[in-house]
Amino acid sequence: MQELRQDPVTGRWVVIAPIRGKRPKEYEQTPKPLPSITAEECPFCPGNEHLTPPEVYAVRDVDSEPDKPGWQIRVVPNKFPAFSQNPSPLNDSHSFIKRAAFGYHEVVIHSPRHDEEISAMPVERLVKLIEVYKLRCVQIGSDPNIKYVHIIVNHGVESGASLEHAHSQIFGLPLVPEGLQDELGGSLWFSQSKERCVFCWMLEEEMKTGQRVLFENTHFLAVAPFASRFPFEIWLLPKRHSPSFETVKQGEIGDLAHTISKVISAYNCKLGNPSYNFFIHTAPCDGSDYHYFHWHAEVFPRISSLGAFELGTQIMINPTAPERAVELLS
To answer: Under DSSP, is residue 154 helix (H, G, I), strand (E, B) or coil?
Structure first.
């Protein structure tokens, strides 16, 4: 059973998803590598399609059949979802606020190759992956019950990944998450007070000095943000203003793919193939006007941990200045 529970003090929502729960032994503190399984055992490898729920979309060879080998990218419902399109009825016997965790939770399997990471994918195949992201965002966001679509990549055990076969996850949420609300609120304030987009302003400022710019091409800037929360945090900013990732143009997708590849390759080369998290922040799909927002992607390696200060105050302590991070990654 999945539930969304609201904290009565802060109003924050928390997903309670026992189906994803670990066994007690899996909470032990000794770091462990991801489970090493062969291609014959991996549920994401060709020939094992029966080990996943039926696919909802796939990029396939012309003569191949659904849920059979012959695919290049495959999208399936998560077998252990945090959100469900058929959540169990809730027991409303107490006064705390909760709601059924209705939504979507899909897995995008990047490649039929068991050991192919994003940084090793040819750019043209990474373009196809981004096209699948866009297509699924449009499809999931068309559900009137969905307010926000969230794309993530967890790479490595420290990132929260559970399988080594490269994959992404796409969530369709029935609410706008708090972190995105903070960005929307700040963007709206800047737009109203300065009469321009804060992300467009950031792009101009960063390109003036170049101190925190890791990589730039025609349509995207990879930059270590001025107030980076984590060591080597990088934001991928589209130069064309648009609130929604779904509006990315075909001519821009190639530059986005190249930018992602460059950033991950820099992590692998300079930081020794660390675990990392990648996600896209886009405007909600709730029908409101978010002209003041600017979609973007964020990525950071998992090479530091949070202490009591960070958890208690929600103020991050970053030991690596963004200017130094770019020097070390370049």
So the answer is: strand
Cα 16 from chain centroid?
A: 20
Q: What are phi and psi of 152, to 5 degrees?
A: -140, 155
What confidence tens digit (pLDDT) does each residue in 291-312 have?
999 999 999 999 988 899 889 9
**Span 175-216, pLDDT tens digits:** 999 999 999 999 999 999 999 999 999 999 999 999 999 999
Domains and CATH numbers, the chain: 3-125+152-178 (3.30.428.10), 179-329 (3.30.428.10)
Q: pTM higher than 0.85 for the full model?
A: yes
What is the per-residue DSSP string for 105-152?
Answer: EEEEE--SSTT--GGGS-HHHHHHHHHHHHHHHHHHHTSTT--EEEEE
Distance CA 264, CA 165 (A): 16
Catalytic residues: 167
Q: What is the number of residues in the chain?
A: 330
**Helical residues (DSSP H) of the chain, grouped into ranges:** 123-141, 178-194, 198-209, 250-271, 308-313, 322-329
Report how far residue 253's alpha carbon sits from residue 129's, in angstroms, rounded to the nearest whole number: 10
Report helix, strand or coil for 328.
helix
65-111 pLDDT per residue, tens: 999 999 999 999 999 999 988 877 776 666 788 888 899 999 999 99
Q: 106 with 80: CB under 8 angstroms? A: no
